[in-house]
Write a structure and sequence with these properties.
By secondary structure, this protein is mostly helical. It has nine helices and no strands.
Length: about 180
């Protein structure tokens, strides 16, 4: 829906006068549909107390919005139970080599859960602007010669690993008094 609405907004800028009214009505209708879908997502998250707590925890990280947090929690229910390498491979942000014999090829990302990767992309894009840790990492990678998209994928992986560790601590809960007395 968002992609359709944004496409209509772009077409509206260059449309002839005869088409403007129709495109404006289309943008209004798509905006209403997006709002309705967001309301339904909020209702579904609020209906499940554990899911609401998990989404609130993920949303507490700068750059991760409500929809990205809900998407990641629902599409990657294993979040918090996997190692950092496993969760990166599951979402599809782990670098895969293309080596053969003595040839060392470039590393690529591939596979994984594309819906989670798309949500993580938008969260990382926002985090490069608003999260000081991710912002510094992105600036460092670009300054060392990495292409901006490659640096953003590295930031996606860093953000995912951070979210995974947050969920792990959340799932384990506070340390018990028995453990502290040892």
């Amino acid at each position: 829906m968002l992609v359709l609405r944004d496409g209509e907004k772009k077409r509206l800028r260059f449309a002839r006068a005869i088409l403007r009214g129709e495109l404006e009505r289309s943008v209004v209708a798509l905006t209403a549909q997006v709002a309705e879908l967001e309301r339904r997502i909020d209702a579904l998250v609020a209906a499940n107390r554990r899911l609401a707590a998990d989404v609130a925890l993920l949303e507490s990280v700068r750059g991760v919005g409500r929809l990205s947090a809900a998407t990641l929690r629902v599409v990657v229910p294993e979040l918090g139970t996997l190692t950092r390498q496993e969760v990166a491979a599951l979402v599809g942000v782990a670098p895969m080599n293309r080596d053969s014999g003595g040839k060392i090829g470039r590393r690529y990302i591939r596979g994984g859960r594309d819906v989670a990767r798309h949500a993580l992309y938008m969260a990382a894009l926002a985090a490069t602007r608003w999260n000081p840790v991710i912002q510094a990492r992105y600036a460092h990678l670009v300054a060392t010669g990495k292409k901006p998209k490659v640096a953003l994928v590295a930031c996606m992986r860093k953000l995912l690993i951070h979210l995974n560790s947050l969920m792990r601590r959340h799932l384990l809960g506070p340390p018990s008094a028995a453990v502290l007395s040892v």
